[in-house]
Amino acid sequence: MPSHCYKQALGSPRCSGMAPFIANSLGCLLLLLFFLASSSTTFSDALTDLEVQYIAHRQLLTFDQSGKEVGDQTAAGGGGLDPNLKFENPRLKNAYIALQAWKKGIYSDPFNFTANWVGPDVCKYSGVFCAPAQDGSKLNVVAGIDLNHQDIAGYLPQELGLLTDLALFHLNSNRFCGVIPMSFCNMSIMFEFDVSNNRLVGPFPQAVLCWKEAKFVDIRFNNFEGCIPPEIFTRPQLDALFLNNNRFSCSIPPTLGRSTVSVVTMAFNNISGCIPHSIGAMPNVQEIMLAGNSLGGCFPSEIGNLRNVTVLDVSGSGFVGPIPSSFAQLKSVEMLDISCNRMTGSIPEEICKLPALKNFTFASNFFTGVAPACSPQSRKDVVIDDGNNCLAGRPMQKPAKDCDPAVTKPVDCSNDVCSGGGGPPKKAESPTDDPHLPASGGMSHPPPPAPVHSPPPPVQSPPPPAPVHSPPPPVPSPPPAPVHSPPPPVQSPPPPAPVHSPPPPVHSPPPPVHSPPPPVHSPPPPPVQSPPPPVHSPPPPVVQKPPPKPEQSTPPPAKSSPPQPDVVLPPNLGYQYSSPPPPMFPGY
């Protein structure tokens, strides 16, 4: 693919004008390669396709026809439990059955993270956190599991459905294969669910639709396929939804406008059709990433109703026609990326004068005019990229022979169904086909790229109970310069209500502004208000060490949101969503 429009690992197109950024990044890349070479013995090899098939086959052999029922069997031999084992209560007995079945389903554990998963005291297992049950019984139960970034290979057994008190399930940056069992539907109080950056397959996991209290759902960087179910946008408490870098197809459901999310990322799938007109009705959304899909047609004018949006990335998705005048109503937008499409006409001055604008990329289109306020020299406080267009007198533009076919036959959006007209969605006629754009009209779609730090926006979750040891916090690192790329997460705010809460997870350099790759350590959810998560979030620590003493966190500014039930999560994690680092081997 030509250099003007290409797909990055974390999901957004990078267009012209990136030479300084690339030069500054070269040193970091060489340093990373040196580190990997010197630490090659620390990491395990990527799974081969044969190993993936073997693990998935092992999982299928354990399923019954319904996929829900689980038996009272241990992993040790498929028989009944050892009668000599003593459990504090029946729920911890069920947790023992579930975790032993899971340990049996592990194919590779290079760091021996689950080596101490032995005996009836499951609350002492690595990555397992217990807390009092929320049903008033005062029983001690398994409330959270965190195996982030342990590079474990295996499958998810259906016995995990016995963990009915689980509210937090973090599994990002591992090598789990197969499907998510329907028995997960039994986890009725699930609050944070992160299985990003694994090798999971199948349709959208239906168990997710069972969870009425889910606040944070991250399944990006896997191989899920099929349609995105309309019901996911009607979950009453959902605040962050990460679906990018999978194999989803079909169109965006019209229920999108009913979603309560503050962040939604569907970038780098194979979604087609129009952006639904209901998008303008989204009440809380602040970040939308649709880059690198097979969408098309003109933009619906309702996008201008998104007065709270700060990040809008619709690059590389085959859009045509002029920029709608309603874009001038995006008063809060900081990063706007419409690059690598087939848009025509002129860039309105009102857009370049938006008060919060910091980065505006419209490179690699067929624009023929630009207002004086939109030239890179006119606003020193805004990064503007206008390369590879048809702008007279501007450097690095398309040759006339490439511009003429598109300019002489502009798309009339008044007749385009995507913008509210009566015709079918318009696809730009291929002008000799522009050598700088893929022939399909959007960006090419190889298998999902290797995940990189993505901006999993932190979602505030209910404060945990009494402070308990939690995984050590990571070392913060400076965020990258604003550049156009899909948002995977910057440091997220501490949880609301001042409560003792464990330190945040390890921060690693966040990814470029606009793209959503997968998080790592997510905090326990707060009870009521949840400020929208930021664009970038650091990756999780590689190895868990003895937890530090809990610190007192200060509450972030409150944001009104529908009252939520008092959900108590395990007191083990910090208060930040982190994104998993990119996989180190081919095959992810």
From TrEMBL:
Key words of the record: Cell wall, Cell wall biogenesis/degradation, Glycoprotein, Hydroxylation, Leucine-rich repeat, Membrane, Repeat, Secreted, Signal
SUPFAM superfamilies: L domain-like
Location of this chain's protein in the cell: Membrane; Secreted, Cell wall
Basic and acidic residues bias spans: 426-436
UniProt GO BP: cell wall organization
Sequence segments annotated as region (Disordered): 419-588
Domain Leucine-rich repeat-containing N-terminal plant-type, first and last residues per copy: 98-130
GO terms under cellular component: membrane
Pfam family, one: LRRNT_2
InterPro entries: Leu-rich_rpt, LRR_dom_sf, LRR_extensin-like_regulator, LRR_N_plant-typ
Domain of life, per lineage: Eukaryota
Coiled-coil boundaries: none
Bias-annotated ranges (Pro residues): 445-565, 579-588
Protein name in UniProt: Cell wall hydroxyproline-rich glycoprotein
